[in-house]
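Fold this: DUF802 domain-containing protein
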Amino acid sequence: MTRILFGTAFCLGALAIIWMGGIFLGSDTLGFGVTLVIGAVYAIGAWELVQFRRATNTLKLTLSDVNHPVTDLVQWLAPVHPSLQNAVRRRIEGANNGLPAPVVTPYLVGLLVMLGLLGTFLGMVGTLKGAVVALEGSSELEAIRAGLAAPIEGLGLAFGTSVAGVAASAMLGLLSTLSRRERLQASQSLDTKIGLELRQFSGHYTQQLAFQAIQDQAQSLPAVAEQLSALANNLEQMGERIGERLLANQESFQGTVTELYGELNERVDRALKTSLVESAELISSSVMPMAENTLAQLNKSALETQQTLTSNSERQMKSLNDALSASNAEIQTVFKANLAQHSKTSDSLVEAVNSAMASASQNLQSTSQSLIESFSDTSAQWAERQREQAEQLSSTISVELQRVREEEGTRGNMAVERLGELESVVAGHLATLGQALEEPMQRLIETASQTPKAAAQVIEKLRGEMTKNLERDNDLLSERTRLMEQLDSLSKTLEQSAVGQREAVDALIERSADTLSQVGEQFGERMQGESTKLAAVAEHFASSSAEIASLGDAFNAAVTLFSESNSQLIENLTRIETSLEQSTSRSDEQLKYYVAQAREIIDHNVLSHQKIIDAVQAQPTQAAVKKAS
């Protein structure tokens, strides 16, 4: 229906122009020229409206093909005319701007009226000039009549161009109205599709999603705070458990070391006592039988000598007693010297044992110190790893909160873009004011069609309408100014809310960072205090499920060091045993030497006693020989 009306109106306007051109053809060159200009302007306006309708038809066809939700807006807009793509996309995204209207046609409608009036004025000029010439040129009636023919032809020019201009302007205005009506229908269909198939691309839908995301984030922030609080509590509980386990391990390690020292002292004491007792028993068992035998033999020899020498003189008994006293003194001297040497040997043995015990104690202390240092290193490494994990958690939370802040900034920018779109809508409303001038122009066309004398009234009315339009424009401008002020206040409110959200997020970040820093500091201080306590008592032992591997390594190192120290202790005890054996062998050698010397002394005494006995026995024989002689 719209296509038929459009074609009919175009044909009527073209027919009026052709009709007036045919009248002026060959008779009035000026009128024909004005008619040609009117026809050219009419053709330009009609061509623009045809292009305008083609663009509208592409939009209508694209909208008619939409039966399901669109996934790609750019691909969907590809069939639409390029002049409408940007406006349609902005309208879908939420901008309240209308689709583009004809730009040149409204001006051409007024221009056609003005061209008709121009032809009218030219005809009136020719008419008045011809009338003046006819009246001034001659006083005869025939001459006056002939002179008035030219003014009448001028009136024909005036009314003919007016008819052509007004008819073309009216038909072009009708064509423009039909085209805008068709564009308005397409715009309404587009609005319907925006609420259904194109809803996911609308700004309102995006704003709802943004508000929903903000609400979700606001709801998730307490959960994040609770998780951080739970993490802090877990870290504190972990520190307490670690401290308790460190104290328990410290006490158990101290008890173990004390037991080991006690067992070592007992073993060394028992070994020394056993070796000394065995040495004393060996010495007593070796010396006492020999001494007893020697004394028994001496007593026996003395008794025999006393029995055999009862008859000897006092001089021989005195000499014999002196010899026995000298022998006993010599034996006591040798025995005392041997005892002194044995005591020196025992003292050196005790000193060797003490030095071995001191070296063993030093080795054990060095082993304990190495264990303490290895445990300190392990504790420091574990504390460093825990601190790095806390810092990594803090950086992760900071990154997530930074991302939330960037998203809030993005939403603020989108709000600013929304304000820019509202400004463009205001500009579109201002553009529609020009379209509102069509009605006064139509009334002007109707007035101009009545009579050429109404041209002045038309001009005055046009001035009045222009004045009213200017006043209306001023009112609209003031209204738009108020609207812009409201928009500015709204933008400021949005900016303040965005700033508030950013400040809240920053405050949350700072609180989270402070909480994590406090947790890290408390954890570090707790670990430092525990390390100091463990260093003061010289016992460190760590046990943690998270560091079981490093603890196993440290424990293996401790076992290795303990094995080495035990090996060194065994070596020292072996050396002590060797020295004891050497001392025992030296004591045996000395005892053998003492026994040999005692035997030599006894043999010497026996020989001396034998000589004495022989001498005593030889004296009676010599006395008998002397008596016989």
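Confidence is low (pLDDT under 50) at residues 540-546. Residues 334 and 597 are 9 Å apart (CA to CA).
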